[in-house]
Protein 1
Amino acid sequence: MAEAPGMNRRALLSGGLRGLGLLGIGTATGALATRDKRDDEVWQIDPDACIQCGLCATECVLEISAVKTVHSHGMCGYCELCTGYFEPDPVNLDEGAENQLCPTGAIERTYIEHPYYEYRIKPDLCVGCGKCVKGCNMFGNGSLYLQVNHDRCVDCNRCAIATACPAEAFRLVPRSEPYLLRGKEEA
Amino acid sequence: MRILLLLALLALPALGIERFPPPDFSGGHQIPETVVPASQARTQAWIDVAALSLGLLLASWISLRLRSRKGLVILSLVALAYFGFWRRGCVCAIGSVQNVALGLADPGYAVPLAVIAFFSLPLLTALIWGRSFCAGVCPHGAIQDLVLVRPLKVPHWLDQPLRLLPWIYLTLAVLLAATGGMFLICKYDPFVGIFRMGGPRTMLLVGGVLLVLSMFVGRPYCRWLCPYGALLGLLSRVSRFRPSVTPDHCSQCRLCENACPYGAIHLPTRTPTAPADDRDARLRTLSLLVLVPLAAVLFGWLGGKVGLVSVAWHPTGELAGQVAMADAGTLPEPAPDEITAWRQSGADRTSLNTAVAVLEERSLTLGRILGAIFGVAAALHLIRVAFPRPTADYETDAADCVSCARCFSSCPYERQRLGLPTDIPGGSHV
């Protein structure tokens, strides 16, 4: 007889605590899930905060980073000597590999008319090292900048590059408008 | 001439300035649009949540109903391949704790629905069926469980105090995540480096060491580090159903005594007929009344201190420290990228100082609250270890058992149930 009340008490206590746990999880989940702007946010780089440290190329969980250079052509000066394309002090102003800043040759340079050249990014080759961005920002118009490409981004809980970014240039943006593009008004 | 022009332009601030006006093309060249790839559909997240739900149901069914170790091994392999190597350990339930903590602390932060599901579903399962998530769904558990070849017994007196470490880890992680500092659990996760087959060298090294350790010591990460495991253990303590060693009744044959590599089988503390030890019960009540409030106050105070110290680990706190060093001239050259970025952003010192002051206040308050919670959890844990509840039979520990189904086959009644040849001690049970 001594056993029975104790067992009942424990069962009751256990049931009560289980209900409490259920309530706790339910409340927290409900509060978080019903928030207005829930879910639809993705990681993106603010080009104005980026300092081109180079970590985007190495910190992404993907083998080849989801971050790649984007070119706002409307802002580009079409310079013959593009500081985003050429090494400092290039041997020749031509497409020779020794003259190029890009380690993977991901920028295509096309002659338009004298003295203008067009520069296009080949996303398949770009590794997001930001060397061209640094060159363009330092001496040019800043029409080249880094962006998280959302066809490749795997939406980590917490972006590994954002954690490493020294400039805190990563932020969450709405999924419906996942890019922070420069010179939009001109385009 | 060009060089001179460049030099003159160097003086300009760097951001998005139009130094060279876009040309007017006489040939009528069309300036191309900026191309950016479209977003992926959200389907992947829903596939993950569906896989998680299915995995949890399957793991519960296999461990509690089928009682099949083989089934769990297969499920673990699938989970390891999918959540581990295919999804690269992201999204994961262990890390979701931080998203939820940040979401609850900061109303401006929206936790993705998939992350909310990964946080809550395994916990709900734990309330009903125990730690099925650990048994067959979590890739971290699976990778350790599958390499366990020769389990060494870790003595109870060492194992149980070590099980306080997950609580410390959880407290720190919640503190840092909720104040917007960093995601500690993601940063120091031992196994994602292996899942991604690459990563920081320290991460790979720690992962490798833990993996080798897991060959001889059962699930070292789950038992002594995993912060989510602490929550799962807490909830499964009151779970509705849980695995029992015997499918039938315990004849105290002692065959399962060494079956658990995780030290989660309780030995009987008294014979079934003997009354409970009154002295132990009284001592337990006394220590509950005295130790728990004492620990809450003590660790609440300590938590506040830790909270203040933790400000230095925040990006903001770290930056403030570096700015102070730069002022004192003790900052090593070249200046770290953080300082360069801060200078470039044009933010002033007052706003930085204000941010640090706000952060300190929040960390102090949160540190005290979390410290007190930790104190209560730690005291309850130690009291439970010091004065175990009397049990008559060989039972699985409600919190520590990860439902791996290893012990079942050691029970003669299980062998009888399966129709295997068995020698039931003390004659067959009717």
Protein 2
Amino acid sequence: MQRIGKTVWKRLKANRQTLLWIVISFATLLIAWQVASMLSQGRVQIPAPLEVFEAFFRSMTVPIGKNTILEHAGISLWRVLLGFVVASVIGMAIGILMGVSPKAHAVINPLFEFVRPIPPIAWIPLSILWFGLGSSNKIFIIFLASFTYVTINSYEGARNVDPKLIGAARMLGASRRRVFTHVIFPSSVPYIFAGLQIALSVSWAAEVAAEIIYSQNGVGWIITMGMNNGNITQIMVGMIAIGVIGYLLSTLMRVVEGRLCRWNRQET
Amino acid sequence: MEPAGNIILRCEHLSRSFTTPSGTDYRVLGDVSFDVRENEFLVLFGPGQCGKTTLLNLLAGLDQPTGGFVEMQGEPVHAPSPSRGVVYQTTSLFPWLTVMGNVEFGPASRGIPKAERRKQAQYFIDLVGLKGFEKSYPNQLSGGMQQRAGIARAYCSDPSVLLMDEPFGHLDAQTRYMMEQELERIWRAEKRTVLFVTNNIEEALYLADRIILLTNCPSVICKEYMVNLPRPRNYVDPAFLQLRKEITREMDPTQ
């Protein structure tokens, strides 16, 4: 973590110009927001930025419903993690299988193409009827949301392995199994990672949607409750939490990818 | 004059055709027979696109001939084997492995314990002049250094024959001269049987004990030369230039 912090800091220092633009960009947003909130008095309700941020930080210690906002975030993240991990493991296995075996591809792909156009949130009603109102139905939705992206990208990765590298490995005495684990798999990793990245952000969106439709906790629930109680500040607090977590998740994935795919970077 | 040494690799009446998209047969390699002797540096020399890579893939066992056969130490060749190492035209290093990881890939595939294969790999990394670059990834190396790593990797799986498919074809002229000298130095330090494919006559004459001339598609052997010049050779030595002239005229009688 410390090293990551250091590199981020180094980059910021090197790009003072960029930093300046980021500050300007956020300042503009906040000013526009403040002006809108002042102009909206008496018509639609737009709470002032300061009020929302205050409520946001207050909710870290004072619960909304039964839980603080951190607990709500934790509950949502836990569901995403479960669904995402299971989907990733199964997706990679099926995707790579499709990539190396044209027969497997011929059988699985049509099903895939059939199911894929159905957006994950369209499954929510079925999922609730099948898995009940608790966490399981949301985990199922997250699984569906991540699964397609991981599978397709793993397939692309396994299919695009340079045949010369497979030839080279076989000439060096690698068994079929070793070719699989030491050539096809590592060579697919950049593709798989691209899939995991999209899958994670789509999962997060699907989780929030599922919570908005029916839930008893989680960050999506905060928004729905805010709507039901006419509490606009609470809605905005929930939205900020969703945005921040989404941003942190994609940053985390980028850092992990940078570590694992160091070899794939273009060096000059 | 007959080349000395035991026959290690033999191909008899080897041919290879490919079916074109329109359905006709396209013959790339037509009836090629020759022997490779132990520890010789044999160069297959021919014009570009003449089926040299096709021939090399057959010898490697990565492809099957349409006619004829390949025999290695009396055994028929059907599949790739670590007894024949390949150095490719462009780098075929595993980009996700470091130089060390690449060079020790062969011994690791044969289940040699880590400490031992590290030692072997280090020896060949030092031999090809990559000491200090063990932890570099291929994309951090120059073209010449990548080919050095490729040579070390091929050597490290302890092959009886090294097959080299225009390994310096993509390098700039300066690096190419240097790599030719380096390869000769490496080969003299660690004698192996080498089958080297090139379309560069100077490279052929600088490296070869024996040169086999291939014609254009379908390629067949048109002539064989023994190169008995002392090593290391000099590109402007009169005998070198004489032989160069002779071979060039053989390939293109109008010159």
